[in-house]
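WARN no homologs supplied; continuing
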Amino acid sequence: MEADPVAEQSIGPELDREFLDLALTANGAVRWSLRLEDETVTWTRGMDALLGIPDVSEETLRARLLDLIAPMALSARTASEWHDLDLEQPIPDGGESEPRYVHFHARRFHDPYAGEHLIGVAADVTRVHQDRQTLTDLADRYRLLVELSPDAICVHQDGLVRYANSATLNMLGTDGAEVLLGRPITDFVETQSVPKMRERLRSLTEPGARTKPAEAALHRINGSTVPVEVVSVLTTWEGRPALQVIMRDITDKKAAEASLRYQAALVQHVSNAIIAIDHDAVVTSWNPAAEAVYGISAKHALGRPVEELVGAALRPGELLASGGVSEALHRRGDGSALVVRVSAAEMDEGYVLVCADETARRHAERTFATVIDALDEGVLVINPTAIIESANPAAQRILGAQPAEIVGANADAWPMFDENGDRVTEQTRPSATTLRTGQPVNSRVFRIQRGDGQSVWLTVTARALNPDDHPPYRVLVSFSDITESRAARERLEHEATHDPLTGLANRTLVLRHLDSAVNSPRRKQALTVLFVDLDNFKIVNDSLGHGVGDEVLRNIGQRLVRATDDTEMVGRLGGDEFVVATQSTFDHDELSARADRLLRTLTEPTHVEGIRLHVDASIGIVVSRPGDTRSAQDLLRDADVAMYRAKAQGRGRYTFFDVELRERVQRHMKLEQDLRHAVAQQQLWVAYQPVVDLKSERVIGAEGLLRWAHPEHGAISPAEFIPLAEESDLINEIGEFMLRTVTREFAELRREHRDELQINANLSPRQLGDPRLHDIVRNALDNAGMPPEALCLEVTENALMQDATSAVRALRNLRKLGAFLAIDDFGTGYSSLAQLRRLPLDSLKIDRSFVSDLGESEDVQAIITSIVAMAHAVGLSVVAEGVETAEQLRILQRIGCDLGQGFYFGKPAPLSDFSALCGTFSL
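OK structure emitted
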């Protein structure tokens, strides 16, 4: 076969045209053909050189060519006709390290005569391959450069993100590009930045055109924003126009700019003068504060020597060498003096001077020092090591020491004691507490032992000089001498808590002592209260005068003090009431023996102004054991109740407060409260007991007797609720109700029966002392339409004797009104007919205690006979109370008694029942 068989023989005009087409597409190519049936291959000249094996045998060349196009021949067998095939194969080129590359281009061709062929061309494409590799390498390097760029770079096309480098991901706060790709670029641009962004992008019309750097704000994935500087470039992406955006995070730049603006504003607005000077001390900057401090404008200061402006020598270098801060005297532009603290800092062009005007502070310090020195209050400054740094004159005077003795001394150099007399330890002194904690100690009272041996009472306050410091703190201690005021207060306290007559504790101090005892958390012993009340002491005052009475009270107080020990409290509550309070483990028998000794001590004769007196007393005893919840007031009340029980049992004795008595007291208190509402709630009513004329045996009137129908306890005895009314001052209200009721009801009864009926009503001792009594009686009579002579007011014998003068005055006023007056319970008191002559009385009522023994005792009959005779002798009628038998009635009639009253004639009953008795009484 020839070296170039295709060139030597024609294979047909159509085949020639195909070769021509291939030749046109491959400049400098070598033609070749391959018959697919037997793999006969032909080629044109130059194939050996193209394949890098010049001057080899035809067989070697054929084998090499077949080997190189074998992949293409395999593909051609399955390819359709006229289907182009391409193959690029490396060709070793001698000993060079880089191979050459040959590109085979072929097409399947069917020849009716020669069969199926693969015809093609081969060309050296080493240069093209190298150019393509160079482009690939260049693209890889560009891609790597973009990916690793510290600036954020992204590409968006048609408004959607197509590419984002790692810096963009970091800037937007995400790890994956899939979060960004395909999303609108506006999703990541702050709304306010979008219009300006669109305006910049519209200006890009040519490929490679770029926008000027601009600022925008981006939205991060977490919702925060980041400021950026952005440049956009018009480029292509996958063959279509796109925009490449380069973004740089300018957060730090913004912060630096803000810092610079802040520093500039600080220089412009600080109160300190800030002056910049060059190395020749000429002013290059003069802030507004410098204008204000020195009174010189910046226009006149710039370019002038600084020393000329501040009126003093300024050597920044020396100042820096000595620490950078000093204080100096400067001058304002008008010549006035300034105290200035100067600090300096060096810069490249010279120095910066900061001049702080300390004139006002220095003036304030001098004023403060003057004020502190003028204070009457002592002031000490104590450093963190508890050493006194300074002391004002008042502190020197109060402590009785010279400055050299105070300054430099330890804060605990003067012994300190609390109000209980206990020494205050070094750790608990106010200054030590504040020094350690920084917390203030306010107005604590202590006693200080001075160096000269004298003691002074001080009220001490300690405060940290600078609470913002860290401990230990410097402490300001102030104190005032309260020695004299404390002594005066103690005198006032003693006067306020002690009885001026006896010097004993008064009610206030007694209650305070009892309250402290019952509320003590360490209480382990019983508390005993003995309530002492003198019997019939009023007689001493009335008969011998208050001077003698006061001396007796002082004597009693001294006896009680001598009969007790120092652990017990003796007090006078007022009048003739005393208290002995003791905390002990006494049992009942021991307390009884103690009460007996006190009674014997008190009843011993006493001599006052030459008069020998015997005074008895009654004692109420109450014991409060641990756990008792009664208050001090409760204990006094219970002891008082027990004392009254002792008096009721015969005086001159003692009684213990017990559960029964407590129940009685509780009932007493409950009834007293209920009695206050009894009138308003219509619980009180009047019962009428007939009064009979013993001669005619006719009912001539009645005595009105008050009754109480209690909604819970039923009928309450007058013997129980009348004393309650007397004690609680309700008697006047109840007495007025009684008078209004009996006058109204009896007036109606008189109109129904006959006019001569008379109603008797009782007056209590307290009512006799009521200045309104006269008006109350008159108004009751007027409102009822009853004449005064139809009303007889009864007063007990004891009531008349309590305050005879007032009683006489009250009775005379009532007598002028026209009402009749009677003395009730005659024979039970201390009165005599001679005394009764002074009173405007109309009758007297013999007490039922005499009438009840009538017929059984001749003595009683003789007494009643005498009373009747004497009463008739002074013009008084006589009423016998408590008539219960016919025999008693006959005796009374025989001895001439005028009137009678008792169960024999009728029991107290409602008005309707009494009305039926009106008329002649039948024996």
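Confidence is low (pLDDT under 50) at residues 1-11, 919-923.
OK
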